[in-house]
Each structure stands twice: as C-alpha cells, then as structure tokens.
Amino acid sequence: MRLSRRKALGTLTAGIVSLSGCNSADDTDDGDGSSSIDERDGDGGEDPVDDDGGGAPAADDEVAGFDAEGYGIEFDRVVNAVDDLGMDPTGEEPIDDALDDAIETGTRIEFPPGDYTVTEEPPTKPARSTSRLGLVGLGESQRDVQFHFPTAGEREDGFWFVNQAGGEDVLLANFSIQLSDDLETSVSIRLDTNDNGIAEDLEWLGFIPAQIQSKGSLLRMNVSSRNGATTDGVNVVRRVTMGRQGSYMGGHAADTGTTPGSTFMRHTPNHVGELRLEDVHFEQCGHNAVRSMNNPGVVTVKGGYFLNCDVSTLRFQGGGHPTKTSLIEGVHIEQDHSKLNRTAGTEPHEAMGILVDSYEGHSGLVIRDCDIEYKDVSVATENAGALWGIIRCTNTGASNPGGFTVENCRIRNDTRAQTFWIQSTNDGVEGPPGVKLKDLDVTITADRQARGSVCAIMDGRDGSSVSNCCIQAPNGNFHGITVNGCSDVVVEDSNINVNGFAISMIDSDGDTRNISVNESCDDTTVE
C-alpha cells in the first residue's frame, strides 16, 4: 500500500508553532477603468505570422478528421460551402452574401479546406437567434479552414464574425479566425445561445490587439436571461486556442492609465446558466483570459493550459446558480516570461493567476487538482501594478466575494509574486466568508513575499481553515500563515517550513493543531 504525502501529513506529531503580532501591508486598487492608448509600437525584427504558430503546444493542435455528427443536434440539411453555395475557397472573392443567405434554422454549412474572405458583419439589431445551425470546417486541423477579415482593421471597435443572441443547438467547429499581423484587426464571436452552444476546435491566429479595438472579448458565450435563457442552459467551449502568435499586453488601466490587452472570454450580468470550458489553450492574454464576476451564472473549467496571461488568468466567483457552483479543475497555469512571444512593444504587468472576485457577494468557488507554476515574471516586476498574486481574493472597488475552496493543488513559486492573498470582506457577502485550503503542495524558492507571509488571510474571513498542507519556503524571512482579524480559524495537520513564524494570529481566534516544521514533505511508502 502506498501512503501519499498528503495522507502522511495527517500522522505528523505536533511541532513548535510560533505566534507573532505583525501587520500586513496595505491593499492596492484594481478598479475596472479604461482609456484609449495614444500609440502602438512594433517590436521590430519579429518574424511575421505563420500558420505554424509558436510558443508551447496547444491543448490539442490537430483534430484527426472532424466528425460533425454526435452533438445531439438534428440538422435538416447539410450543404457544402463551395460545391453547393459557390463560396470561393481561395480568398479572392468575399463569401458574405452566400453565407448570409445560407444561414437558417436546421442548416449545417461545411467548409472544405481553404481561405474564406468575410468583409461584412452579420445583423446586430437584432442579432440572429437561429437554432440548429452549424458552421463546420472539414479539414484535418482547425488551421485548414481559415476566415480572413480584410476590412476589420479599419474599424475602431472590432468586428463580429458570428453574432448570435438566443436560439439553441448551434455548432461552430474546426476552423480558424485569421487576425493577420497588422496589430489592429480584432474579430469576435458572440455565441449567446440559450442552450447547447458549442465552440470546438477553434483558433484565433495572428496578433491579438488592444482591448479598445475589440468587441469587449474575443469569444462570448453567455446563457443570457435577456435572450430568454434559464438556469438549465449550458454552453460548451472545447479545445479553443487563443494567443499563440502574440498579443498586446498593456496592463490594467487603473495602474497604467492606458488600455489593456483584449479579454479572451467575458460574461455579462445576464448570464444565468453554465459555461463549460474543456482543454482550452489560452496564452498571453493581455487582460482577463476568462472573466465572470458580475452575474448569477457559473463557469466550469476542466483541464487546459494558461500561459503568461495578464492582467489575470481566471477571474471568477462562485455564482448564484440554484444547483451549481463555479469550478476550476485540473488546469495548468504557468507564468514564464522567457516564453513570451510577440507583444508589439508592450509588456506584462500584473501576472495574476486566479482572482476570486464578485460584484454580487457570491461564495463557493472551488479550485481543485490544479498545477500552478510561477517560473519567471521578471518582465513585469518593474511595471505599474506589478504582481497581483498567484491566488488572490479581492475586495477593491465594488468587489465583495465570499469564501472559496482550494484543494489538492500543486503550487511552485520561483518568483516574488504573492502566493495567497485573501483580502478582507466587504458588506453584502452571501454565504460563508471563510477560505478553505486543503491538501496543497506549496513550494516557494524566492526570498520575499509581498504580504510578509506565504498566505495572508485578512479581516472578516471567519471560519477559514488550512489543513493537510505542505508549505516549503526556506529561503526568505517571512511567515507561513498570517491570519488577521478573523474568528473560528483552524490550521491543522500541516507542515510549514519557513524562516519566520509558521502561524501568525493577529486579533484572531481559533485552533492550531498537529503542525510540524520539517524540511521535507516527501511521500511515505508503507510496505
């Protein structure tokens, strides 16, 4: 029988636990203001965009022969974009009229490998609400079918390729959106279906420009009550790739006074159902890679790779759904500025990992089975608003999130980014305010933590707990767990190896038990 390191922690005898009375530094603001940017500089000497991409491998770069069946959608007709609709796969002639005429309920349009030119946006007032619709590429890879938008760069507010508000059973699959290398073209998809909207094996190629040049986000998939959706609705994003060929990284407007980069996915206040993200590859987002913190809906993220996202990687709340709570499970988050690709002269700033945030006071977010690595954030360290932290629960501005859980995760931090920063509660929190940290492996090699401890838990987070955790941070003069102004706190069955105090309780009450301060938390094998 093999006894895991986490199980072994529960058998440790209690070590010496030290208490202190030092205070944490003041909080910083992260408001949502935005303003225009005066100019954009090219990097100079960068290679132009090519179809092979760059950086780390995508979650699933190739799709071995796309099968459009099996999505639970009954199509009345299937048409070939070239043979049946006369679309030009060479990109010389626009497909606008043929595409507009073909979109109707019950139709799946299949695109053979090629390049297709789109020059006009779909209707917006009102947007389409077509049901049982499919736009599907027939190539072996999503890059075999590419849509090009030569007029999009002229627009100052982005370009809609798909603009769907309502309806259900809509499939977008196995194609790419080519943004080009002009640093200005921004193309978005709005797939706000009421249920069973599916975006699968899509990729945004080319350079992703600043937020001010976009529609607010590159992909929107709200289950929106405004369109008649209910809490039963579920939309799915599967193996979608963004950012592998560079993006604008402007930092948060509250820190820099300029526009940030483009948000990849963002929810509106009317989102009431569930969005599921599976095995996405989101790289070098210059804003929030996924943002959902002002609505009653939920977001589920399972698997996926998030590299060098800035301002934040995942900005989430628990949600107010009657039967579900938001979940982040099995994701790999990495910050490594040695892997930055094209930035057009801009730089990352905040290098944020997971930001627990809610304008609604929602509690209950679960972060589980994740692998978080902070290897190098050197490009951001001297910039305005630098290093907002790896896992942070914020209270700035209108933010008032409740409690959340982090469990069975591995965190390695080779940088000075704050590892856990749990800010105090604001009025209006719904549900328990405490944070639960359990079954965590935390290794820090840096010599500094901005909050003076590996984990800073601030006022009002009553009922917080740390259990069965391994914290190894032997190189700096800072504490392990600092709790300030909280009641009913429990820290137990954990090994906390730091040069400061293992646990610091300031104006707080609770219980500490079975705490060790050993140099190792290695697995123990029982024969």
UniProtKB/TrEMBL annotation:
Residues 18-66, 111-130 are annotated as: Disordered. Residues 44-64 have a biased composition (Acidic residues). This is Right handed beta helix region. It comes from Halorubrum aquaticum.
